[in-house]
Amino acid sequence: MGVRGLTTIGVVEYHDVHDGLKNRNFRVEYNIQTNESKCACKLFERHGIVCRHILWVWNGRQVYKIPEPYVLARWTNKSYKPIVQDETRNVIEDIDKADIKKAEMSKVWSEIYATVGVMDTYATVKYMKQLQKTLRQFRENITGPIEPKTKSQEIEDLLGITASNDIDLRPPNKAKNKGSGKRLRSSKEKAKRKPEKRKRRCGNCKKWVNHNSRTCNLPFAESPPSDDDDEEESEIEEV
User: Fold this and answer.
1) How confident is the model over 42-60, as a mean pLDDT?
2) What are 126-148's pLDDT values in tens digits?
3) Which tens digit of pLDDT belongs to each residue from 161-198?
4) How far, in whole angstroms, is CA 204 from its chain's centroid?
5) CB under 8 A, 24+ apart: contacts of 124-132
6) CB within 8 Å of 211: residues ≥ 6 apart
7) Which of 8, 17, 173, 233 could disulfide-pair with 53, CB 3.0 to 4.6 Å?
8) Residue 12 is inside which H or E element, if any?
9) pLDDT at 234 exceeding the cut of 50
10) pLDDT digits (tens, 9 = 90+) for 88-112
11) Phi-psi category of 28—alpha, beta or left, where left has phi over 0 and alpha has psi -120 to 50?
């Protein structure tokens, strides 16, 4: 590893660094003022790791601390920490402070559980009421006096909306369904109510029956009775 050539243009130096392992030269671009460095191997752009060619140039320029832009968060102890938000869902940028707050909150819960456990075993009702009063006063000192909420206010807080006084939609009038409409008849009832088949007049016997001259039971008459005979028979039956 060594510098085979150096070219300076303004505040930018171009170092031709020889890599003995690969037996080839890599050009490193180095800014004297900002310590910005770029190498032709593109290792930092691909994997986020500063290559040995840039480190060789930094060592020659007496840069013994890696510049901050080249220390990515993925290589630090902050890479595994999740995003922390406060009560209003704002992202807390200072994660260390959030961790301290979380640790202190754990201690507070430990003290509360330990106190409640002791009171459940040894304390009387008087001490329990005193602890309730102390906790209530402490909460009110932080958030202010808490007024009791009505049922509608609790529902509004739960749904996140406010009830409107202007009601445009009203419930429909109650329908009177008792005794309205007709009951659907069954097929059996329909068959009973079905009128009889209309009779037809037979051409052989000249009677109003449900058959014709071809299906008539009487022998075929060469001279079937006339309509007048039929009327006379009907008159006799009426008498």
Assistant:
1) 90
2) 888 888 888 888 888 887 777 77
3) 777 777 777 777 777 666 656 778 788 887 777 665 56
4) 84
5) none
6) 202, 217
7) 17
8) strand 12-19
9) no
10) 666 655 556 666 777 788 888 888 8
11) beta
Whose CA is closest to 13, among 61, 46, 85, 76?
61
For the four alpha carbons of 87, 91, 94 and 100, in that order, the dihedral sign comes to positive
Structure tokens at 43: 């290792």
Burial 16-51 (b: 16+ CB within 10 A, else e): bbbbeeeeebbebbbeeeebebebebebbeeeeebb
pLDDT of residue 72: 85
Q: Positive or negative, the Cα torsion across 186, 192, 198, 199? A: positive
Residue 92 phi/psi, 5° resolution?
Answer: -90, 115
Please tell me the total number of residues recorded for the chain in this structure.
239
Q: Judge whether 157 and 151 are in contact, CB under 8 Å.
A: no
Token pair, residue 107, equals: 């201690």
